[in-house]
């Protein structure tokens, strides 16, 4: 039985000559948008519930405790101070929500992850999905019930080693989609390099 003869039309990839031959360029696939989103209103439900519970508790205590004669009558100035603090807490929550809602925008395509932040000054950054090393997500108890959470991306891109995406609706589906696109692009590139 004789050894198979090398095919003269395909050069040996281990020769010095083949190291300097140009590789066939990777065929460009069209880029498609797969998902886009931002900070979900559902991510603030826990904050709203907490603020409402604290507000009702404080107001009830200020009415019930003097009526039960546990404490003396509460002066109007203390009422105004307490109500002012509660109002500031609500304003802080509402302004924080509006800022997050308007300032964060994310977009996933078949080749890149694009994230924008800022209201007056907008910064747009792009990460190639092949540079994303790890995708994970975190959810609290209320967030699990509502299906929202925070996605964390680990990247080999030096400008965005770690990226945190807060308040993402359908967090499990979106993080799975990012991971699938990342792995698909890596397989596509490695097949090209192996076959090149």
Topology summary:
Layout: H1 16-20, E1 33-38, H2 45-67, H3 76-103, E2 104-109, E3 112-117, E4 123-128, E5 132-138, H4 141-146, E6 148-155, E7 162-169, H5 171-195
Antiparallel strand pairs: 1-2, 2-3, 3-4, 5-6, 6-7
Helix pairs in contact: 2-3
Kindly provide the radius of gyration, computed on alpha-carbon positions and rounded to a whole number of angstroms. 28 Å
Supply the number of structural domains. Answer: 1
CATH architectural label: Roll
Helix content: 40-55%
Strand order across the biggest sheet?
1-2-3-4
Derived from helix and strand composition plus strand pairing, the structural class reads alpha+beta
Number of helices: 5
Low-confidence stretches: none
Order of secondary-structure elements: HEHHEEEEHEEH
Question: How much is the average pLDDT?
Answer: 84
Explain this structure to me?
- With 196 residues, this protein is α+β, with helices and mostly antiparallel strands.
- It has one domain (35-195): Pleckstrin-homology domain (PH domain)/Phosphotyrosine-binding domain (PTB) (PH-domain like, Roll).
- Helix content is 44%, strand content 24%.
- Helix 2 runs antiparallel to helix 3 (76-103).
- It is elongated.
- It starts with 15 loop residues before the first helix and ends with a helix.
- The relative contact order is 0.14.
- The model has no long low-confidence stretch (mean pLDDT 84).
